[in-house]
Write a structure and sequence with these properties.
Elements (H helix, E strand, L loop, with lengths): L10 H19 L3 H11 L5 H26 L4 H21 L3 H15 L3 H11 L2 H11 L2 H19 L3 H23 L5 H10 L6 H10 L6 H26 L3 H8 L1 H6 L2 H12 L2 H22 L4 H28 L7 H30 L2 H31 L3
Helix pairs in contact: 1-6, 1-8, 1-9, 2-12, 3-5, 3-6, 3-18, 4-5, 4-6, 4-9, 6-18, 7-17, 8-9, 8-13, 12-13, 12-17, 12-18, 12-19, 15-16, 15-17, 16-17, 16-19, 17-18
Amino acid sequence: MNKKYLGYESPHKRNLFLLCWVAYFSTYICRLNFSAVMPELQKGEVFSESQIALVSSAFFICYGAFQFVSGILGDKLDTRLMVFWGLLISSVSNILIFFNHSFYSLLFLWAINGIVQSMVWSPILKIASVNFNEVEKKKFGIDISTTVPIGTLLSYGISLLTLIFLPWQYVFLTCGLTELLISFYWFIGTKNLKQSDAEKEKSKALEVAPMSAKKTIKILLAGGLFFLLIPIAIQGTLKDSVTQWIPTFLGDAFGSKTTFSLALTMILPIINVTGAYFAKAVDKKVKNEITTSLIFFVISAVFLTILMLFGSKNIIIALISMAAITNCMFAINVMLITMVPLAFASTGRVSTISGFLNAMAYIGCGILNIFAGKILEISSSWSVLFIMWLILAVIAIFVSAISVPLWKKTKAKKL
């Protein structure tokens, strides 16, 4: 494979990957900026913990619920335009928050943000499934997963710089304008991206007619993917909820200013870039995405225990533990949300299956995040929240263990 093209076999495929990477990366800029301003909202008593959790959960629940719809549409509609409109409306929603940021306006606009951002991920996976060969699909899946930690890093970076000089409302304006520019980069870039005749023939050969819904459900059942909805929801919670609450935790537990908390939090995504490659290395040995996920759930449970016992006493231990937990969740996310759906490329239902699995991750995260807000408001104890996260990790370990042989049997059939 030609190394000149970032490991892809042609300039077209390299450019297509880069466009997909930048598009999905930008969604995190306009997603985690709310996490960045949460300490300001809490300290300034702008909103209560329950209200903050409700706004956050509105995004996750709407994002998750519409992931399934977007997944189905992604197998039928123009994926290029779906991604463009998702990015464009998301950026506008953020910009509007700058002008009107009452609680109900924020709740409504953040829910809209969740709905339209759901139009990005599944169509991108669909694009990958019909434009890349089997080797490239695996590379694409690992490489695009780096959008999450790098997008997190840039979101916190933009938010940090904005908060140093301006009130919290401006965070939504700066992040919104950034995503607005990227939406047009996607629109223009994909419009002018031309394939050679040979590449068009290859893409056409890779594209298959969608399998019937009935047969797809049978495959999902046989593969144990319905069992996996529980660990998928849990990894979504531990990935996004932990990341989201970190700046607030550092402020509460150690009296850190919002800007200092954000600066510390930015260490985590730098470390989390490695999560996908750790997952790749482990999966290369065990050759089973569910087994790989199980291993990382076990590691996360160890660090959740350390966080529960010592996290509120030592900021270094807290940061190391949270970095390890989120790193494990990024590794699991690559396996369950990216690599598993791509294994179904031959069914023509990659977007549908991806949307379904991703929906469960975010709906679960949204519901459990409401409980997180209630726990903090009622008990004012972070240890109670850490215990809840630990219990969730243990549940995920048991369910994943049950699903391992089912997925092994399904993969043996060579979908």
